[in-house]
Design brief:
By secondary structure, the protein is α+β, with helices and mostly antiparallel strands. About 30% of the residues lie in helices and about 30% in strands. It is built from 12 helices and 15 strands. An 8-stranded mixed beta sheet has the order 7-8-9-10-6-2-1-12, with helices on both faces. A 4-stranded antiparallel beta sheet has the order 11-13-14-15, covered by helices on one side. A 3-stranded mixed beta sheet has the order 4-3-5.
Length: about 350
């Protein structure tokens, strides 16, 4: 097995792009393993809608990045107290039994935790639990690269010492805002590992825990060590541009209805629109506010824009919103759209 050493790069766009880079380019090794961490971010499943899953207003105000991954499943919260692991295996003829075989991939992680005295176990389809509470969500992606090599990527999270308050806030989407057929996350009772370690007298910071996990798996799997080269990093950074693009994050093929209403001292403002192929259409603005100009002009300015708060801000930056909604400015208006 090849172990790609952690670079201490915490950019989630880079780290998710590195998984795709490994799938596409690392063909000499049947088995590859990585450990990595991200700065605060929410990672969406491949088929999910960010507006239906995430409190985007909270994420923006707290500088929590939104990222979409290649695999399916539900969204998860990452921060410096969370450890991520990725396994990659080449699938040959007759090897399809490993697809969706979560136990095969999480066994080294479970064994490493048991070595630390933790009663970790796989329960259900893809969750790792301690004392009935989830500390790890797992997902998989089958990938055929440009060389025609079929691979499976299995990756998961390990909540070691994550900020549970932030996790609860940012994954608390307002379900009344959006009607979508996208895949919804299943919420579970979650726990950090660190308190369980403290109870057993083996407390350690996340960095030391990551090294323990690394040392155990490298030793057990007799791993060959590898550092990304300067060329690897340059190419991953190119791939990361896709992961950081709003079209990829928010989904160019998703269709949904959006509606939100807020009460201000100048009146109530309600915005409704449909989104198709990442673009707003049939925007309507209602409320008991007053305005000097016809609100239909402002509605027309929304139609055709991407449903992305920064792009909407840029597009409407030259408009005097107060001319349409007396007392309202651009910041208040765009705050209704997320």
């Amino acid at each position: 097995m090849l172990f790609i050493k952690n670079l201490n790069i915490f950019n989630p766009y880079f780290n998710l792009a590195s998984e795709e880079y490994v799938l596409e380019n690392f063909n000499r090794h049947d088995n590859i393993f990585m450990l990595w961490r991200n700065e605060p971010s929410v990672i969406l499943g491949a088929n999910q809608n960010a507006y239906a899953e995430i409190n985007l207003d909270y994420a923006e105000k707290n500088n929590i990045k939104i990222v979409r991954r290649l695999s399916g499943g539900g969204c998860v919260f990452h921060d410096f107290g969370n450890i991520n692991f990725s396994f990659f295996e080449i699938i040959g003829e007759g090897d399809d039994g490993r697809i969706l075989n979560f136990e095969h991939f999480v066994k080294p992680v479970v064994n490493a935790l048991k070595k630390l005295g933790l009663n970790a176990e796989l329960k259900g389809r893809n969750d790792l639990l301690i004392d009935g509470a989830k500390f790890s969500g797992n997902a998989q992606r089958v990938y055929k690269n440009s060389a025609g090599i079929k691979k499976i990527m299995h990756h998961g999270t390990i909540l070691f010492d994550s900020d549970m308050g932030r996790l609860a806030q940012v994954l608390n989407a307002d379900e009344d805002k959006i009607k979508s057929k996208s895949i919804k996350s299943v919420r579970s009772r979650v726990t950090n590992i660190r308190p369980h370690l403290k109870d057993s007298g083996k407390d350690m910071p996340p960095e030391e825990f990551l090294r323990c996990l690394e040392d155990y798996i490298v030793r057990e799997k007799n791993c060959e060590l590898y550092d990304f080269s300067a060329d690897d990093v340059k190419n991953i950074e190119l791939t990361a541009q896709k992961y950081a693009s709003p079209e990829f994050i928010f989904g160019s093929k998703l269709k949904y209805e959006f509606a939100n209403k807020k009460r201000f001292d100048f009146g109530t403002v309600e915005i409704k629109f449909n989104v198709k192929d990442y673009k707003i259409c049939s925007a309507k603005i209602h409320g008991d506010f007053f305005g000097e100009l016809d609100i239909k002009e402002l509605e027309g300015s929304l139609n055709g824009l991407a449903h992305d708060i920064n792009m909407i801000r840029d597009a409407l930056g030259g408009k005097d919103i107060e001319k349409y909604i007396k007392g309202c400015d651009l910041e208040k208006f765009t705050g209704i759209i997320i």
